[in-house]
Write a structure and sequence with these properties.
about 15% strand; TIM Barrel; alpha/beta
Length: about 325
């Protein structure tokens, strides 16, 4: 299920204009102002317009992203309180709009230990879920690139945070491909895909992954410098994305493109992913022309696990 983050300039219903033009099956939006703490009430007519526009679009899943100003692990008590309150607002707004999941960057604890930061983040998430008991919306913790003291660059921290929250029905994971690569996971090529997805499954569990950000990396492997690139224009290569979109274990989950030049590059990235999804034969190790790749058969690389071309690609 392929889609993109889309613009809501002019109002939430406008999200479906880009979605329709780009033939998105899923989209990601901000449902509240992304750069300020105050959130105006959701007007009933805006909600109705959003739901009506969604009904008329090909979009099957809408995911919301929580603004980056929210830091559930902050060492500042007041900032944590604001973040917890905003998280509750985001969950309530998503429920009103029929959105199943909200994506959260878990934040940074600054000078305190990572263990203490994880506990602070978990406490805020659990409190927000408790305050919205009865809602269906999930919080999806995103794996991060490892810049500074940002939490959850390692799968072990993602798993620990979820265990501390202890709400498996309403807390899960959004897996970002670029962040994993930038954090040091060898997510490149078919063998790298097998290794990293196998580790994600072992440490966190693929059943916990309810959405994916399908991004290439502008910066090198293990750089801890978070710079997204459109698929095929970064350091990761096409094979890993071919395996990803063909993997039957991830079938039906929203795969969302997030690129810096959203309006100029998102459609091309989506078209490339669609071509990769349709292609059964493994890609050559060298570059192939983007969006006009040869469909000539290539020999299937040897594999020893359940994620490589013989299953994910040939499925």
């Amino acid at each position: 299920m392929l889609g993109s983050n889309v613009s809501t300039v002019g109002g939430l219903p406008h999200a479906f204009e880009q979605a329709n033009a780009w033939r998105c099956e899923c989209i990601q939006v901000y449902t509240t102002p992304s750069r300020r703490w105050d959130v105006p009430p959701l007007q009933p007519e805006l909600r109705e317009s959003f739901l009506a526009a969604r009904e008329q679009s090909p979009v099957r899943v809408v995911v919301a992203h929580i603004p980056f100003l929210v830091n559930t692990a902050s060492e500042d008590r007041a900032a944590r309180a604001r973040s917890r309150a905003r998280l509750i607002t985001e969950l309530e707004r998503a429920e009103e709009l029929g959105i199943a999941s909200v994506v959260l960057h878990p934040g940074s604890g600054g000078r305190v230990s990572r263990r203490q930061s994880l506990r602070r983040s978990a406490k805020a998430i659990a409190a927000a879920l408790g305050a919205t008991a009865g809602l269906r919306v999930r919080i999806l913790v995103e794996n991060m690139a490892g810049q500074g003291n940002m939490l959850c660059a390692r799968f072990e921290e993602v798993a620990e945070l979820l265990a501390l929250v202890d709400e498996p029905e309403r807390a899960g994971v959004c897996f970002d491909t670029a962040h994993a690569f930038i954090a040091g996971y060898p997510l490149s090529g078919y063998s790298g895909y097998e290794e990293v997805l196998g580790e994600l499954d072992r440490v966190v569990g693929l059943e916990q992954v309810h959405a994916l950000h399908v991004n290439d990396s502008l910066t090198r492997h293990g750089s801890h410098h978070d710079r997204h690139a459109p698929v095929g224009e970064g350091e990761m290569g096409l094979q890993v994305f071919h395996a990803l979109v063909r993997d039957p274990l991830l079938s039906g989950r929203p795969m969302i493109v997030e690129v810096p030049d959203r309006d100029g590059k998102s459609l091309a990235a989506l078209e490339l992913l669609r071509e990769l999804e349709a292609r059964r034969d493994p890609l050559q190790s060298g570059p192939e022309p983007l969006l006009q790749m040869s469909l000539a058969a290539a020999s299937t690389p040897e594999r020893n696990s359940s994620y490589g071309p013989s299953k994910a690609v040939a499925a």
